[in-house]
Design goal:
By secondary structure, this protein is an alpha/beta fold. The protein contains 11 helices and 12 strands. Helix 1 crosses helix 2 and helix 4 packs parallel to helix 5. The longest helix is centred in the N-terminal third of the chain and has 32 residues. It binds beta-D-galactofuranose and zinc ion.
Length: 353
């Protein structure tokens, strides 16, 4: 009932705003005729007007955190594929360019445009309470996608669709544990360096915590250092170069996304070293984008922990349920695998990113 009442209110407000816009146009034209200049037409009303063209479309204000990685591009594409006008949605997509203040600005503009839903991937976990309270006060449901928010009151968002980065980190630890056993190296001293993603993002914190939890069981695993590659190839290469300069005997690189791995591989090759199942340095990566899986197939990357960006359809489903007044799960995790040379061949053809 609440949703219907809110939508009726939004429709009524839209009608009122259209009358205001029409009056403004009349005044503006009259103003021009009498030479007293145009009133500024409120962008959002035009926007609202367009969005209102077919009132049955569900208007989605979507703030994507950036376009820093292949994974991110695939995630955005997945949302655009699902939230189309044919599927009953009017999507307003804004790119936060990796800055929280840009995302907060977008969310505020979605609130003033009175969208039906706000969907966003938070670049970092904290600092969202105030703006999400504003969305709640405006009666606009918020759906968090991919990364997670850390808020005092979790009624500030209706649902989360994403992947469990802590589990992904644990999977990396479990894979290393069983691979060392397989090689008869479970008692060797293992020197590890970690390339971390965007500082304070749930993906970085989850993967770090998950891997650390397994690593803490083994006194012979030595985490020599970790450095922030911000999920990009350039920074990943820069940090890996420093590691190679500071540590002569690295056994394992844990790189929290494939883009940083590509940069790290360049640095390792430039240092005259090799990687993978027959190489000097083992590589454990995250995301499992196609380019990286090809390197798993060639034995250059030992294991790639999937982080599935195909989240658009799950988000659309949550919204459709809410539209029907049905209850939704607070957490909607997406299924993920671990790829190694022994299974990657089975999946290469079906990969969509
Ligand atoms: C993970 C996602 C991360 C990817 C990176 O859920 O937030 O952000 O692992 C991306 O590739 O930049
Ligand atoms: Zn993930």
């Amino acid at each position: 009932m609440e949703r219907q009442k809110r939508r009726m209110k939004v429709k009524r407000n839209r009608k009122i705003s259209k009358i205001i816009v029409a009056l403004l146009i009349v005044c503006a034209v009259a103003g021009t005729v009498c030479g007293c200049g145009m009133f500024p037409l409120f962008e959002t009303d035009l926007e609202d007007g367009t969005a209102g063209k077919d009132d049955d479309l569900i208007v989605i204000g979507y703030s994507q955190l950036g376009s820093e990685s292949i994974w991110r591009t695939a995630n955005t594409a997945s949302m655009q594929r699902a939230l189309t006008q044919e599927n009953g949605f009017f999507l307003i997509l804004e790119n936060g360019r990796q800055r929280q203040e840009n995302q907060i600005k977008s969310i505020r503009s979605f609130i003033s445009q009175r969208v039906d839903y706000i969907v966003f991937s938070p670049v970092v976990s904290t600092g969202w309470d105030t703006v999400l309270q504003e969305a709640k006060d405006a009666g606009i449901p918020v759906i968090v996608v991919d990364r997670m928010v850390d808020v005092k009151d979790d009624s500030l968002y209706t649902a989360w669709v994403g992947t469990d980065s802590r589990v992904e980190g644990e999977k990396a630890g479990y894979w290393l544990e069983q691979d060392l056993k397989k090689r008869g190296r479970q008692y060797d001293d293992i020197n590890i360096v970690i390339l971390t993603g965007t500082e304070g993002s749930s993906a970085q914190m989850g993967r770090s915590a998950g891997f650390a939890q397994i690593a803490s069981r083994y006194g012979n695993w030595h985490i020599l250092d970790e450095g922030c590659g911000d999920f990009t190839p350039a920074k990943g290469k820069e940090v890996m170069k420093e590691f190679l300069r500071d540590y002569p005997d690295i056994d394992v690189v844990v790189s929290q996304n494939d883009d940083m791995t590509f940069g790290a591989l360049e640095a390792i090759h430039e240092a005259g070293l090799t990687t993978g199942i027959r190489g000097d340095i083992m590589i454990i990566s995250f995301d499992a984008v196609r380019e990286a899986l090809e390197l798993v197939e060639q034995g250059e990357i030992n294991a790639d922990i999937e982080c599935n960006p195909e989240q658009g359809e799950a988000v659309a489903e949550v919204i459709r349920k809410l539209e029907r007044g049905e209850s939704v799960e607070k957490k909607n995790p997406i299924e993920e695998k671990v790829f190694t040379i022994s299974n990657v061949g089975l999946y290469m053809d079906s990969r969509t990113y």
